Amino acid sequence: MIDDSLARKAQKQLYKAAREIKLDTNILKILENPMRTLKVSIPIKLDNGKIKVFTGFRCQYNNAKGPTKGGVRYHPDVSEDEVVALAAWMTWKCALLDLPYGGAKGGIICDPTKLSETELERLTRRYTTEIMPILGPHIDIPAPDVYTTSKTMAWIMDTFSMFKGYTEPSIVTGKPEILGGSKGRKEATGRGLAIITREFFKAQKKKLKGAKIAVQGFGNVGGHAALFLSQMGATVVAASDVSGCLVNPDGLDIPELMECVEKHACVIKHPGKQIDKEELLFQDVDILIPAALEDQIH
Amino acid sequence: MIDDSLARKAQKQLYKAAREIKLDTNILKILENPMRTLKVSIPIKLDNGKIKVFTGFRCQYNNAKGPTKGGVRYHPDVSEDEVVALAAWMTWKCALLDLPYGGAKGGIICDPTKLSETELERLTRRYTTEIMPILGPHIDIPAPDVYTTSKTMAWIMDTFSMFKGYTEPSIVTGKPEILGGSKGRKEATGRGLAIITREFFKAQKKKLKGAKIAVQGFGNVGGHAALFLSQMGATVVAASDVSGCLVNPDGLDIPELMECVEKHACVIKHPGKQIDKEELLFQDVDILIPAALEDQIH
Amino acid sequence: MIDDSLARKAQKQLYKAAREIKLDTNILKILENPMRTLKVSIPIKLDNGKIKVFTGFRCQYNNAKGPTKGGVRYHPDVSEDEVVALAAWMTWKCALLDLPYGGAKGGIICDPTKLSETELERLTRRYTTEIMPILGPHIDIPAPDVYTTSKTMAWIMDTFSMFKGYTEPSIVTGKPEILGGSKGRKEATGRGLAIITREFFKAQKKKLKGAKIAVQGFGNVGGHAALFLSQMGATVVAASDVSGCLVNPDGLDIPELMECVEKHACVIKHPGKQIDKEELLFQDVDILIPAALEDQIH
Amino acid sequence: MIDDSLARKAQKQLYKAAREIKLDTNILKILENPMRTLKVSIPIKLDNGKIKVFTGFRCQYNNAKGPTKGGVRYHPDVSEDEVVALAAWMTWKCALLDLPYGGAKGGIICDPTKLSETELERLTRRYTTEIMPILGPHIDIPAPDVYTTSKTMAWIMDTFSMFKGYTEPSIVTGKPEILGGSKGRKEATGRGLAIITREFFKAQKKKLKGAKIAVQGFGNVGGHAALFLSQMGATVVAASDVSGCLVNPDGLDIPELMECVEKHACVIKHPGKQIDKEELLFQDVDILIPAALEDQIH
Amino acid sequence: MIDDSLARKAQKQLYKAAREIKLDTNILKILENPMRTLKVSIPIKLDNGKIKVFTGFRCQYNNAKGPTKGGVRYHPDVSEDEVVALAAWMTWKCALLDLPYGGAKGGIICDPTKLSETELERLTRRYTTEIMPILGPHIDIPAPDVYTTSKTMAWIMDTFSMFKGYTEPSIVTGKPEILGGSKGRKEATGRGLAIITREFFKAQKKKLKGAKIAVQGFGNVGGHAALFLSQMGATVVAASDVSGCLVNPDGLDIPELMECVEKHACVIKHPGKQIDKEELLFQDVDILIPAALEDQIH
Amino acid sequence: MIDDSLARKAQKQLYKAAREIKLDTNILKILENPMRTLKVSIPIKLDNGKIKVFTGFRCQYNNAKGPTKGGVRYHPDVSEDEVVALAAWMTWKCALLDLPYGGAKGGIICDPTKLSETELERLTRRYTTEIMPILGPHIDIPAPDVYTTSKTMAWIMDTFSMFKGYTEPSIVTGKPEILGGSKGRKEATGRGLAIITREFFKAQKKKLKGAKIAVQGFGNVGGHAALFLSQMGATVVAASDVSGCLVNPDGLDIPELMECVEKHACVIKHPGKQIDKEELLFQDVDILIPAALEDQIH
């Protein structure tokens, strides 16, 4: 394991926590490595008739608490290192909340923006088939992550159900409501962020009303967090995504900005002052919400 | 993939063969990468009561011709790269002989000489359990390899059978005869080597009788090859193993040497002239038998 | 498909609804035909020792919403056409209420009034065995229908449970309460009818009290509907079954009539004025409840 | 059952045989109807992007002797009646030779000449998925029939194997040799015909040498029968297919005619005298080989 | 069946009840014998390296109400007779409360006080493996009993889960809370005893306050019953276990006594007057709680 | 275990053999007890409509060599002791011939001569269902034994096949030839006896021709042994069954006697001198064939 890898970072965090709680060395030895990682080749026929072979992963870090759970990511930067680290973090997250779940993570190395919807469907269905031996409502349950959506989950669910011979909604979370998905799932992460922020201010005996907020990654999570926080009275003064960064010291109009992003898929189509997106992390704010990719703050 | 890796070497061989036979590019794309590789953590309790976590692999390279087959290796140098390359080579081997099998390979990073028999048993049983989801007489069938024996196969077979609730001999090859193993299996690879050599001499219209032979790696394979070839009239002038190298221009006494290796597990306990073991590859012989680890000749 | 068949009728209703909601043609093409229909021979030994072979059906119309659900009918007029149409209607019913179920229907061509209870049991058990490959709590769940009762469901449940090796109550609905059946199931359809009627009157701003009602088919459904509606203040002026039709402009005594039907299995044993049963449909009433077989009104 | 249906014809043959052998009435009652017939909808996406829903069948007539076996036919005239009759005949055929198999038959109503190869593949794969619950090496084993080939069997085998998670060659017969198909399978039916004819002549104490033969349906079966019979010395004087009929009183050159059919898929591209194809049945010959569709002679 | 056996005793109770409720003879015949009893050999390696073979049982008395449920007992006196009787009583208990469960019981003939924890673990895991064919959340669900604890249940659950390939908490009750066990399970039986006693006094219109209680078997059940009853105002004047019997006419200090038992595993380490433990049954009390082994009162 | 029980006898034989071959004590400990014994209640409806509950057993003594094999016996004297002993002996028999099978035995306590064929069928089917969890071609394979025949095996095979959903001939041996039974199976045991006797005479350098033979139990085994031995030239001077004993110093006419037994099911209907059946064991003969029940010679 390379020392600056993400998985190594996750391991070091574990060691620190283990020292803190004087964790039994034998248990630590089991926790410091993933239970299993499956690497698969995913050959699909492209729309142009040629075959292209993608590489996918599914890491199940630890299942002591129950079936593993975790997202599936489609991104050119997906790597075994990344899925292992993310699966470890999913494990700690579930355990901290005492959920009856272990942690997992999957991903496919691909640029989803360059694949047609039919290609994405074939990619997803074949990936599901390949990881089938270690998938199941009692074994491992995928969820949406970067560049995968409720539609991706519907494909996974359908592929799994075809194999079983009956409809099995409990094989994924984050599926469309019509297929049994939970209401409010889309905005859940953002709402959680907003509620935690509110509670943190309460605990700090500070006022949320008027507090200044910067949001890095104004996507589904960042956007909803901004929305709920602005409804609670906070002022969102900066919002960035891959396209750039918008700032407004008096507060951005969040509902309008969300509409713009819905339509154009980038914040900078919204009128207003722009700054370099790297600058967002250095704004003078009360709260910084890092809602882009992991590992942004050093 | 690092350019001097074994898997890369296997890939380059494939490309060369593909050019030769004008293989369809789409098929080449599927063949150039392994179908799936499972990496598992294997926690076992050592005899001293402490837990140690080993890392194991099972690569199933391609199953188009039938269930995959391939050895399981216990060695400190086992790596994902190595099992992938060996699994590829198993695939080509089975396909060339038109056997209804695909290729696979597995391994555990460990020093088996430092583990007690009970530790090796626990290691093997847990490894079997961990790769169980992709194991089966119709799916993937392990075999002995470096530092694994018919006893190892008996453990795998017993673990698999326990899980199924009935005795399943067809889950491994290379098991003890008493459990349904094939007769002659132990000497099969060496005998094959001897027969091929004999046929090669015939085709070359040369005489095998009196031909000089050097054997690198006087273990199960090398020893039996030497035995059968000497019975056919050839003269084994050099034999090495990890302990060193014996030479005798008039021919070593192979049955005696085998007995010595049986007893002492090294060739140099046998009386006779010794040379540096690296020198074996440079002896003046008609046939060189490389029967140690792969990748010895450059 | 013959143009005046029931299945064709169901198809035409679908086309009409599809036009109304501008349903995607591709989806319509999938919905216009049943997913699968299994036709089975059911040989049973009669009480007289001879073998008789019955013909049974199970149509699973569509399972997009979840496992299919639907009754099993024992009647001489059962046909593939009928089960297909009824399965289609079950599909729409479940979908309209957004239940996580698809629609199915089954039936056996037989005259259940001419079979002894032991013959009915053997018939039911063998039918269950024959449709087993497409039955299951996640696949398809039978329910009582014309001439099948909670006892029939108990036989299906027991046959299925025997095959699985454990008691599986979720394979049928409408089973006896003692085996896990729902309380109030028997009167549920009739109660539903009464409640809808009450709500309809409310919506129409009419009074249910004193409204005149005719019930075609005073069986489990019609009888309970009559009972609940009379308790709500309506007046049941006519009630028919296969035996004939009773009328009373001042209202029939429903509890007494139900008792009579319980005992004699026909309405005409109850004292009161009788008319020809075909006349029931032409009575001057505020509400007509058609609770006999489908397809009565033209 | 309509009186002139194929299934009715098969039934009448059964009754006749039953009278002959004084078959137990109870057994006759079980044999006179198919065990089960599954009718499925098969929605596939056409190459033009539209969905088309085909209807398919699989009839398993009787499995008392072992797993059922029988072809899958792709033809516009496929009907439930036809598959039931053909499945019955498969049952008698297997039983007469005391093979450990029962009889089955399947089919899809379609015009395979109007479907592209990718459409045929999707059709076959979806059909296989739909009949999966009653398919298996121990349950029912498909084979090629009218307009289905070893390639079709390869698709069925691959679909089944994908679902099981391992390669299962024993799910179909008539698959390509490379996938485990039997050698000589292609010419087997024709060779059988030729051998039976030869034996028949022997039994009749007639000479096959110079005997005149007419072949209706010069396809795989008819063509090979003609080839083997001409090699045995017989003279093939007439050969027809859907395109027309060739005649030559001195004997057609069968190897050349086979080559022509291989290239042009019709006999009339071969030089020589042609007659109306209906006339073939009325030629003055010693042997008539009806190798087109069933039910040609009245 | 020997006339003074426990199973015979259970049978006689059944006959008495059957007469009382005029039970159908056919049903009685089914109820008077256990459905199935599995007797297994359990070979384990002791810590000293030798193999010892224990004998274990699992009796599933009747599963008409649902999956069977019942404890697993480790004791030198375990016998087939005992598990059959206890399984019968579990059946009546579940049925009386109309729980959807049948009754079962298991046990191993062993002296658990003479086995190390690792030996107990191996014994439990092997016993679980041996009864696996008739175990499952839908089939039979073990629970703790004499000398088995939540830890034993964790071993059973882990063994079962290993075999299934996923964590299955519903295979046992009485497991540790961390693995999904119910809160309050430990004190449940004792609390139930206390509540029933309180209700009995109410029904008898007597005062529980000041009532005198003797507890035979001051273990988990007896101790908690004593605790809750003393909190309700009763006076525990005598408490015995295998070590002896403590008495105090003014009431024992139950929390202190429980602490003592927790530490020393016997009541007599607690200061106070002791009597012979057999005397406990003859104390002058209002309530006697027999919470040791069954069959104490004659 | 009672000291004069059959199982104890089998154990003592094992101890003797173990001393002889200096068997490892750990292995002996595993071999001295049966792996598992299942005792089941078998409720069936008698022809008179009443329910009767029978008790059945299946003991699987040891499966180290492969799936267990052994007969099923219907007899009033069947007991757990007997099936355990017989299963032990089956284990040694299979092991001595190095067959890949372990040993098992089953039985039902019943008087098969007092049950109608339909009752026997129901008894067999229910017994099969009850032992299903430990039955299977890879697990345990029944065979005919005392009072069970090829028809009994057909019932077991059909019941098992119904549960699996396909015909599984490999679940029993000794089935009718029409269902896949082996040719020559019926006379196999008798033929084996005759051949061994012939070889024994050869080894003893004695003449079989004219040797005098007494057969205890002139059933399927004894009758065929007598037949083959008489064909080899021996003289059968005495033959008994449950009905009595026939003697003829010049040799009984075996084919005629077999015909008589076929027709009347007893030897004494055959003309000739009769003696008390207990006397058979004391005849002056060269060979005594004990082919009745086990444990006849003391």
Description:
6 copies of one chain form a homohexamer. With 298 residues, chain A is of the alpha/beta class. Chain A folds into 2 domains: 35-179, Rossmann fold (3-Layer(aba) Sandwich), CATH 3.40.50.10860; 188-290, Rossmann fold. Chain A contains 8 helices and 10 strands. The first copy, chain A, has helices at 6-20, 25-31, 80-96, 117-131, 150-164, 188-203, 220-231, 254-264, and strands at residues 36-45, 51-62, 68-75, 102-109, 140-144, 212-216, 235-241, 244-247, 273-275, 287-290. Chain A has a 5-stranded mixed beta sheet. The longest helix of chain A has 17 residues, at 80-96. Chain A is globular, with a radius of gyration of 20 Å. The model of chain A has no long low-confidence stretch (mean pLDDT 92). Chains in contact: A-B, A-C, A-D, A-E, B-D, B-E, B-F, C-D, C-E, C-F, D-F, E-F. The interface between A and B is medium-sized, with 23 and 23 residues.
Task: Summarize, please.
Six copies of one chain form a homohexamer. Chain A has 298 residues and is of the alpha/beta class. Chain A has helices at residues 6-20, 25-31, 80-96, 117-131, 150-164, 188-203, 220-231, 254-264, and strands spanning 36-45, 51-62, 68-75, 102-109, 140-144, 212-216, 235-241, 244-247, 273-275, 287-290.
The residue fraction in helices of chain A comes out at 25-40%
What do we call the CATH topology of the largest domain in chain A?
Rossmann fold
What is the terminal separation of chain A in angstroms? 20 Å
SSE pattern of chain A? HHEEEHEHEHHEHEEHEE
Task: Figure out the total of helices of chain A.
Answer: 8
Q: Residue-averaged pLDDT of chain A, rounded?
A: 92
Order of strands across the main sheet of chain A: 1-2-4-3-5
